[in-house]
Amino acid sequence: MPAVKYDVLIEKGATFRLEITYQEDGTPVDLTGMEARMRFRPDYDEPAIAALDADTDNGRIVLGGEAGTIVVTIPAAVTSALTETCRIVYDLELVTEPGSPEQVERILMGKAELSPEVTKADP
């Protein structure tokens, strides 16, 4: 199934949270045993400005097993450090068979606009 295009807004200095339910034909997909990874880049070939993985202990991507939910969280401390003022590209991939050989499916992609923070400490 092709990735769904979905543009998001990241507010600098605020916690970013995106929750989706991954479904096929209206039925949640069981994500048990899968991994996920997500990257935000200023352009497709540029270094990542934010890298999130579900197989780490930082809790930034949480897979909901049989419910098919995926919750992506970027803490305010991370969004505060983002310096890009242009549109950012991103995608979210599921690794359906971790290990060798992996089966990777890109499920979400789009642009992320970074909104500057106004209420912040003065220099």
Report a brief summary of the structure.
The protein is mostly beta strands and 123 residues long. The chain has 1 helix and 11 strands, in the order βββββββββαββ. It has one helix at 76-81; strands at 4-5, 8-11, 16-21, 23-24, 27-28, 35-41, 50-53, 61-63, 69-74, 87-95, 104-115.
What features would you describe in this structure?
This protein starts with a strand and ends in an 8-residue tail after the last strand. Strand 10 (87-95) and strand 11 form a beta hairpin. It has a single domain (4-115), classed as Sandwich (Immunoglobulin-like), CATH 2.60.40. Strands 1, 2, 6, 7, 10 and 11 form a six-stranded mixed beta sheet that branches. The longest helix is centred in the middle third of the chain and has 6 residues, at 76-81. 5% of the residues lie in helices and 46% in strands. It has 123 residues and is mostly beta strands.
How many separate domains make up the residues?
1
Query: What integer value in Å does the Rg equal?
Result: 15 Å
What proportion of the residues form beta strands (DSSP E)?
over 45%
Largest sheet: 6 strands, mixed
Q: What is the share of helical residues?
A: under 10%
Overall mean pLDDT: 88
**Could you give the count of β-strands?**
11
Which helices and strands appear, and what pairs or packs with what?
Elements: E1 4-5, E2 8-11, E3 16-21, E4 23-24, E5 27-28, E6 35-41, E7 50-53, E8 61-63, E9 69-74, H1 76-81, E10 87-95, E11 104-115
Parallel strand pairs: 1-11, 2-11
Antiparallel strand pairs: 3-9, 4-5, 6-7, 6-10, 8-9, 10-11
